Amino acid sequence: MQSASVSAALPSSSCHYCYPVPNRFLHFRNLHLKKNLNSLSLSRNQIHAKNFCSLTLPAANSFSKEQEENLRKDNKLHPDQNHTFLDQFYSSADTNRLRNQDPESQNQEQDEEPRYNKDKYWTVLCTNMWWSQLKAALGQRINVEGIVSSTVVFAKDRHLALPHVTVPDIRYIDWAELQRRGFKGVVFDKDNTLTAPYSLTLWGPLSSSIEQCKSVFGHDIAVFSNSAGLYEYDNDASKARKLEGKIGIKVIRHRVKKPAGTAEEIEKHFGCQSSQLIMVGDRPFTDIVYGNRNGFLTILTEPLSLAEEPFIVRQVRKLEVTIVNCWFRRGLKPISHNLLSDAMQCVKDPPSL
What we know:
It is a single chain. The protein contains 11 helices and 9 strands. The termini are far apart. By secondary structure, it is an alpha/beta fold. It is globular and about 100 Å long. It has a 6-stranded parallel β-sheet. It has helices at about 30-35, 65-75, 80-100, 105-140, 145-155, 175-180, 205-215, 240-245, 265-270, 285-295, 310-330; strands at about 5-10, 15-20, 55, 165, 185-190, 220-225, 250, 275-280, 295-300.
């Protein structure tokens, strides 16, 4: 089968360039174009395109050997022009095919595209939700920031993990004495300090102590947790609002996990320096390190319940307590606090256990 050629007259020049069209170019997907391709003949005055004025499809043997030789030279000098012209012709052919297509077929293709995009959207959305839930579940059990901080503390800042005060739970804390010493507010951890792990309700036996704390400090009480209120795991603050409704204590929203980060959000909430605040928590390498690093008075409590705590968290907790007790036995002391020289001054026996 002979090949045809395309002759394009450019507006900026009076000469004609001939582009040989390979045989594969004649096999269009649209039969209408294939049937009428050989009869396509457009005059200069009929069509004015952006890059060419007219198209003719003369026979392959309609020009001399000298013209063929010149054509080969042009192809070598301007190899990209051929591809550009053919791409434009293909694009024009596809456009004509869509214009001549049955309206019902066009509507069907238009309906299928949104349906494909919609399915793709939901697939990506479900994948992202699954990954977010998995990340949240693992993140609440494995504190990467805590691991990094623990390494630094163990290497050179061991005193940061030592609390100023150690009590079984918050019922042993004398809130009135702490206020008399000059403290202006209290910051609580949530899990295993006020509630059972991953619970949003107050641990029953602590109700009386919380009420005493409220009667002393008023509204200057807050929860600063690595679960409720942390944007990473509680982005819509739903857990924070539910906890606030259950225990009547404000939950501070924050972006960085303890022990990393500063006390900026807490100081902004209370309107005072962190050295005038008390940090109460159950984890030496999380709550206590964060509190000591930012100048709080730190109080370490024992966990309320280990039964609902994940296995890996229990093992890490045992290791933390063992290390801290070892440092105390070796004579290592916590950072001194200027508002409380003797830790036993704020410890009392609870009225009823």
